[in-house]
Amino acid sequence: MIIRAALCPCPPILAREVTGRDPVVSGMREACAEVTARLVEVGPDVIIVVGPAAETAGWDSASRLDLSAIAPALGGSGTPGLPLSLGLGVLLLDQAGYSGPRVLQAVGEHEPAPRCTELGDKLSASAARAALLVMGDGSARRSPAAPGHLDERAAPFDAQVERAIRDGDLAALIAVDAALARDLMATGRPAWQVLAGAMGTGQPITEVLYADDPFGVAYLVAGFEVAPNGAGQAGAS
What is the pLDDT averaged over residues 215-228? Predict the structure, then answer.
């Protein structure tokens, strides 16, 4: 079962090697480091990393992201190895000093909600005490300078997702419209729904550590706790 979970975005700038000395979105990085450390501190049997990718597939737990695929100046093969979302999740675990067992699970960007929640349930049942690190971005159409340019639907969409997370409303995450998420380039949608499936039927205790849209992309960092006796209440920063 999942005893603790975390949600982080997965932009390339999460890797310090990509930005060098420039403290780009330092608040986001610090929040991601904090929620990842919280997963490690509970001493789980395994940490499961879930992130969106072209296809649903498990990856070798020893795999790493070749950052030269997104920053050629770093040198390397120039091939990403792991999908970016999983690679950045692994990077966060490494930075947190975690050396225990890990499972790396990509979820296809076109997977429907029932398949996502089924995968989450399966992952949750894979260990008695598992922690879950979910990687995924919100919409990328929140300003004229955003990767997808401005779409007026983006802000309400992201607000709805953020409210669902703040409230611990897993049903609302499962109900996120996949077609709208695609339109808005919200790549995290399938991973959010895996998270909802993995957390089960109770209402988790949640905390949002970071929510902003630098570069016109919605980034959200949050922690999830399993409530005692299955009865939860949400919290927010």
Answer: 92
Per-residue pLDDT averaged across 132-152, rounded?
96
Specify the long-range contacts of residues 29-33, CB closer than 8 Å, at least 24 apart: 31/209, 31/210, 31/221, 32/8, 32/92, 32/210, 32/221, 33/92, 33/95, 33/96
pLDDT score of 70: 61
Q: What is the pLDDT of residue 15?
A: 81
Q: Where are the domains of the chain?
A: 2-230
Exposure string of 129-139, with b = 16+ CB inside 10 Å and e = fewer, is ebbbbbbbbbb
Q: State how far Cα 134 lies from the chain centre.
A: 3
Dig out the tokens for 91 from the structure: 């990077």
Q: How far apart are CA 225 and CA 207, in angstroms?
A: 9
User: Strand, coil or helix: what is 219?
Assistant: strand
| pTM of the shown model | 0.91
Number of DSSP helices (H) and strands (E) in the chain, helices first = 8, 7
**What average pLDDT does range 168-180 have in this prediction?**
97
The one-character DSSP state at 19 is: H
CATH superfamily to which 2-230 belongs: LigB-like (3.40.830.10)
DSSP secondary structure letter of residue 14 = G
